[in-house]
Write a structure and sequence with these properties.
The structure holds two protein chains of two kinds. Chain A is of the alpha/beta class. Chain A contains 13 helices and 17 strands. Chain B has one domain: 3-Layer(aba) Sandwich (Rossmann fold). Chain B is globular, with a radius of gyration of 17 Å.
Chain lengths: 461, 236
């Protein structure tokens, strides 16, 4: 199709901006799209798209799931594009497409994997139709951008292309109600052997029946509103799972994934249950897209969770783990707290997951701290808490109101690596360093210092 | 002591779960009544010492209006009788005259307070807030889709005078509602945790003085926050 001068000018402008920004040391994953859209608001509509377009959206798990999908494509030698290191907003998606397009606007890729910011839904789905859209889940997120889960639900639901096949989380009563006119398949995790029914979270984004407003019966709560619920008044309940993880074999680091009555063994990508959701949802999308379960088993045996999300290192007798606990997103932090709660041994936690912005003028709205399950950290074997950043005293307050002993808390107004000296290395077995997406470099430096001091302490012993 | 939390399963957004938790810590021996959407509020039929409602989604807000509308007279009577109410975020909009949506639809509120809320769903307002409650500086944040327009802005019983941010709307300095023992505000935080001095003052005025847990740390956090929020270059 011949495209007009306006399209080409905006494409060239965006591509030139990318080159200039690269030369000045910027990653340029957002700005080229931003500038091109300023010149041509319809550029996403006009840009060529890969033949097979896979979208991943939802509150939590977008990045990991889209990496899983892209890693499988890479493993199978499929030419693909992926906004992996870029922004997942409209501008980021435009940047990625322009970056891989030729100067004449040709895009020689068969597959595209796009992480799509929920807030960008109206603009993105107006201009591109994913063949498959994986919706990981919907929870409350940033109050500033996302308001609440119902707002985001309406935003996605009101703009979904009817041709898109949805890959929906059957264990999530909110997101699984999206696109009732779309073709959909579902995924989930059965209650696993020894897994507790845990209605202990502060936040439950749906407690009343969406049909008749009666309180839902909680048959099995995995976390927050993820689980199995039913309405005793009208009979409303979760959708059945088309793809289900039914069993975990921790000793062999595998799980059983059941689909249409056949069991398949997959390697566990990590010890964290949220990565099981990322696994089963990615398998569901890729299998629906035509990959055989055998092919997927093979590829997933080599896939690991990206390092900025979870990085563990053994330093003598001390385990040091960097664990993503996204700031402003209470559910992501609660998931990380839940993971820490389940660990044994004496634990120190460095709470570096507060928002940090260049210039230091950002005054974080700390209300989100009260949605997080800080009570998970109030246990005897968690012996030390180190709070960081401008809001360190607010985090101290939150810990104290959750019942944490004040003697366990040390707080710093900075993110300096020197805070690592505050840890009592003689008396801890595990150190968890919580980071946000915006302070990975700072928290990586803290981690390096902690690792160095932990190794030194081991040598001295 | 009885504290009733209205619709905690839906009116709990923007960190206001913190208020539910904090009230329990302030009054550890209190009976906490958690009233579900379809249940009749307890305070209508028996003495309750404090009634709390937090912010909710727009859909849920309409449902709350529907269940409370038949009870309007009784609620108004309790407010005039001096019962203690603490409504945060868009909870207080329920008691207003109306809520005007983006599409021009007018949702009739209970009409206890003469004010109209105007929603703009694609124009989210987020700002740092500092206001004066008598001589006390109160800090918090606003995160909302609505602006509120008292029908008579001159005589409206505001809670605070705005120093930073905006009041009931972008043009008004007055923020919130303080009428008898009814306190309503858009300022979130949670307000009572972020502002220890305000909390002590309010509960004293309500005739139920409180001893704040971890008061010194609350004050240290407040001081840092106030300094940051008063910097005109800072942002939310």
């Amino acid at each position: 199709m011949l495209k007009g001068l306006h399209f080409h000018l905006s494409l060239w402008y965006g591509k030139l901006m990318k080159k200039i920004l690269h030369m000045t040391g910027h990653r340029a994953t957002f700005s080229p799209g931003y500038y091109a859209l300023k010149l041509n608001p319809d550029i996403l509509l006009q840009l060529e798209k890969p033949k097979h377009l896979f979208g991943v959206t939802g509150t939590n798990g977008k990045t990991t799931s889209s990496h899983f999908i892209a890693d499988v494509l890479k493993d199978k030698g499929m030419e693909h594009i992926h906004n992996s290191y870029g922004s997942n907003t409209l501008e980021g998606i435009v940047s990625t497409l322009m970056d891989h397009s030729s100067w004449t606007g040709k895009l020689p890729y068969e597959y595209g994997v796009f992480e799509i910011d929920e807030r960008s839904s109206p603009h993105v789905y107006r201009a591109m139709t994913p063949e498959f859209l994986l919706v990981t889940n919907l929870f409350r997120d940033s109050y500033k951008r996302n308001a609440h889960a119902e707002f985001i639900f309406d935003l996605i639901d009101g703009h979904l292309p009817k041709e898109t096949t949805l890959i929906l989380n059957a264990d999530d009563l909110i997101s699984s109600r999206l696109g009732r006119d779309n073709r959909h398949v579902t995924f989930g995790i059965d209650p696993l052997e020894g897994e507790e029914h845990l209605p202990q979270n502060n936040v439950v984004d749906i407690e009343n029946c969406p049909v008749c407003d009666h309180l839902l019966r909680k048959d099995f709560v995995r976390y927050h509103h993820i689980g199995r619920f039913a309405c005793e008044n009208c009979g409303y309940a979760n959708l059945p799972r088309d793809y289900a993880i039914t069993r975990i074999d921790s000793a062999n680091h595998t799980c059983t994934l059941s689909h249409r009555g056949v069991d398949w063994t997959f390697t566990l990508p990590s010890k964290n249950i949220v990565d099981l959701y990322n696994l089963v949802s990615s398998v569901a999308l890729l299998h629906e897209a035509g990959f055989s379960m055998e092919e997927l088993q093979d590829s997933f045996s080599m896939i690991k969770v990206i390092e900025s999300r979870y990085k563990e290192e053994r330093c003598g007798k001390i385990d040091v783990a960097l664990l993503m606990a996204k700031a402003i997103n209470p559910i992501a932090s609660s998931r990380s707290f839940d993971y820490i709660k389940r660990q044994t041994g004496r634990i120190a936690v460095i709470l570096g997951n507060t928002e940090i912005k260049a210039g230091g003028l950002n005054e974080e709205n700390i209300a989100w701290l009260y949605d997080i399950d800080f009570h998970f950290l109030n246990q005897e074997n968690i012996v030390q808490f180190i709070t960081l950043g401008k809001r360190h005293k607010d985090v101290d307050v939150r810990l104290l109101l959750a019942g944490v002993d004040p003697k366990k808390i040390t707080s710093f107004g900075t993110f300096s690596p020197d805070i690592a000296y505050a840890i009592d290395y003689e008396n801890v077995d595990k150190i968890f360093i919580l980071n946000d997406t915006d302070n990975i470099p700072e928290m990586m430096q803290v981690r390096e210092k902690v690792v160095e001091l932990a190794k030194e302490a081991q040598r001295e012993n | 002591m009885k504290i009733e939390i209205l619709y905690p399963e839906i009116a709990n957004l923007f960190g206001e779960i913190g208020h539910q938790m904090f009230l329990q810590l302030l009054f550890p021996k209190a009976q906490i009544i958690r009233t579900q959407l379809l249940a009749r509020p307890t305070f209508l039929d028996e003495q309750v010492d404090l009634i709390f409602m937090g912010p909710t989604s727009e859909n849920s807000q309409e449902k709350i209006i529907q269940v409370l509308r038949p009870l309007k007279e009784k609620i108004e009577e309790r407010i005039h009788a001096g019962d203690r109410f603490f409504f945060t975020g868009n909870a207080m909009e329920v008691l207003g005259t109306s809520i005007l949506t983006d599409e021009g639809r007018s949702i009739q509120g209970l009409g206890i307070f003469e004010m109209e809320s105007r929603r703009q769903m694609m124009h989210r307002l987020t700002e740092l807030y500092v206001g004066m409650y008598d001589d006390l500086q109160v800090v918090g944040t606003k995160t909302q889709f609505t602006q509120n327009y008292p029908l008579d802005p001159e005589t409206f019983p505001y809670l605070m005078k705005t120093v930073r941010g905006f009041g009931m709307n972008k043009q008004l300095e007055g923020e919130g509602i303080h009428f008898h023992h009814f306190v309503g505000t858009y300022v979130l935080g949670p307000l009572l945790i972020l502002n220890p001095l305000f909390t002590e003052r309010l509960f004293e005025e309500w005739g139920i003085p409180v001893t704040l847990p971890h008061r010194n740390t609350l004050l240290e956090a407040y001081d840092i926050r106030l300094k940051g929020y008063l910097n005109p270059k800072s942002y939310a």
